[in-house]
Amino acid sequence: MRVILPEIKELISSKKKRPIRKVVSYFEPADIAEIWSELTLDEQLILFNALDIKFAADIFESLKEDQMIEILNTVSVEKKKAVLNEMSPDDRTDLFAILPDEETEKLIPLLDEDEQKRTRELLAYKENTAGGLMTTDYITVPEDVKIGYVFRELRNKAKDIDFIQYIYVVDKMNRLQGTIPLKDLLTTNPQRKVSRIMDTHIISVHLNMDQEDVVHVFEKYDEPSLPVLDKLGRLKGVITVDDVLDVIKEEASEDIYRFGAAGGTDEYLSASPFRVAQKRVIWLIILALAGFISGSVLEHFSFLLSSIVTLSFFIPILMNTSGSAGTQAATVVVRGLATGEIKLSDIWHVIKKEFLIGILMGVVAGVITALRAIILQGDVMLGFTVAIAMIAAIIIATSLGGILPIIFKKLGVDPALMSGPLIATILDTTTLLIYFNVTMLLLWRLQ
Amino acid sequence: MRVILPEIKELISSKKKRPIRKVVSYFEPADIAEIWSELTLDEQLILFNALDIKFAADIFESLKEDQMIEILNTVSVEKKKAVLNEMSPDDRTDLFAILPDEETEKLIPLLDEDEQKRTRELLAYKENTAGGLMTTDYITVPEDVKIGYVFRELRNKAKDIDFIQYIYVVDKMNRLQGTIPLKDLLTTNPQRKVSRIMDTHIISVHLNMDQEDVVHVFEKYDEPSLPVLDKLGRLKGVITVDDVLDVIKEEASEDIYRFGAAGGTDEYLSASPFRVAQKRVIWLIILALAGFISGSVLEHFSFLLSSIVTLSFFIPILMNTSGSAGTQAATVVVRGLATGEIKLSDIWHVIKKEFLIGILMGVVAGVITALRAIILQGDVMLGFTVAIAMIAAIIIATSLGGILPIIFKKLGVDPALMSGPLIATILDTTTLLIYFNVTMLLLWRLQ
After folding, report:
1. Which chain A residues are Cβ-neighbours of B361 within 8 angstroms?
2. Do A291 and A222 share a structural domain?
3. How distant, in Å, are the alpha carbons of A188, A238, A297, B144, B185 from that of B149?
4. Are B257 and A332 an interchain contact pair (Cβ–Cβ within 8 Å)?
5. Structure ipTM over 0.95, yes or no
6. Nearest-CA residue of chain B relative to A312?
């Protein structure tokens, strides 16, 4: 059902808690969160205070971070306490992680005692690891109980947990021994022992595993959730696939931003132009300074340019085509490294392939450029020279475009930092060097 | 557990079905699929025939498409029949969709009768819509039954379905009336009526919804699965989040490839250089032809270049910096449009912001370039001219980089087609025009 803003606003202005609660409950929390920014702070507070706490917490979890902080700063302590306790542990930890430490220290004491302990434990893990992604909302049972016990556990705890796909069976040291899919429980005699029906094929991730690797495990095994274990095999948490969804999106954005040399991935629309310019200008300065080198190459060969002015007409097309060819190769390799299709050991394969691709594309681009020189300038020798330069420049372009990201990765640097603009800038210099040297060799002496 | 290839190969060479089946069952099907390409076709066949059919089908589903086709072409008809019937309907449909029609027509009759009907129905939906993503493996119950009935249904069908998160309640016309989370079943009296405990807040997607929009619904509501309805509200299928994972990855790759002007997103490592070059060269030709325009601009202003040779030294840096600035802006806007952060209605916001960003970055880049001219060429007036040209060029670059993807989207074209290289090529022309005009205005008359 669609949220109709004017009606909601009118309802809120009535300040009647009952009708507000009733109408809003027809919607999904995520739908209310979506129109949140259209409400004034006063309206947000009336709405927030009118709703029952479970629904309020669900909306709260769907808000943007700055909206959450605004609400936390204005609602009463009791409401704050209720909402924070109601939140799912992983979302709560994410919120605490972005708050200043002294703020977090003020909020943690509002939690129930065991939630406090869990939260401090979760906060200790790095944000971009399995530990930073996992929740502590799941159900464990000892290995020596019967299925009937599991049913009782479920009846006690199922209400507080959003989605349950597996029951986790642990030994006395909390080491994971097996899993029981929820659907299997329904078809099992309550008198059977847990250890007899549990699945001991455990797919798990390690507490310190990087979130990108966690994504790969989820993609490979098509699991809806995975247990997180420490070095001793003890169950520390569970990652559900909806959190992985966010990571994939985030990592893809990060890669794209880096590859476009566009700086960080903060909000764009709400950031000030100064802030955005600040993030981009560092890359622009680096690229401009790198661009000086190609300027110097031009300067070095200016005697050629002044004796054959037509030479300069082909500078943009050469720089452009080689820059594009290099970007194409880098795009494929950067993405392949990110998805895992291309591995570091594939470097020779990539070099060989991009070299051949360079020859094929170079010949096509070379012929086109030669035709331009012959038709517009009527100079066959110039056409030949430009074509040779183009072929050589494109071979270098595809080869470097393919190799440089792999070398970055080998050096432990994010390959996406070998961005399109950076490749293009590097290739400007190599292309000009090739162009002038080919010209010296083939054309200049003939003049 | 890690698959140790030499041991598996030795085991297979023994051709003893029992031990093979036993050892291989310790692993996950996805792990066996991962080493599949390291086995010879003979080894693959021995292994495939040794395994029980459920496990073989699970491995089969995890294989790459060309590996699947190879197996289908070599195993016996009975085995083929068994595996195809065992596969999940959505994966089977994906496989059939890539096979030639006459192949598919040969395979469909191998399926059980009702699977045949379901498969033909699924094949009719477009691949990149909700209908193309959904599976028909789910459990429905009528609205007038009791919970005990649901338990019986589950006992009959749960084995064939990988993950069950919801039971779907439908009316006599198969219209979806409500959902029951599996975990709620466990805590409900079997005598209660389904219609009393079902959740009537239904979040669903429409059969023809584009897969990108399906992803957005999953991201917004954090659901593990969503029902797919037709126009009349009838339940047609269910999409699970693991299929959405693949779509997100696929769509991100597609966007990145397009933005890098790198053609399609087929396999890179296994494709021949000719095939890859073929996909890239079309873009390269388009870009090269567009690059001719900047060559013509240079030609048109060659009188300037021959009278002031130092002018040409700044061509690469100007083209480069404006190209990079435009790519930065386009990166952010293309990604923002893909994730939904930026909407078509934000066009004026984007123009204003990118214009301001252009001024800020233009001044920085202008000062740097002016300093180069003053220090290396000792020419203050040249420095001033180059700086003005740089500022103007970068303002145009960020503005165009921001607007062009939005205009593409408005025209119904994928904004990612406004790629980094294309932006850079367009900006080459504008930058040269700005440069020469500024020079004519400020510098040339003074000489």
Report:
1. 277, 280-281, 284
2. no
3. 16, 32, 81, 10, 11
4. yes
5. no
6. B298
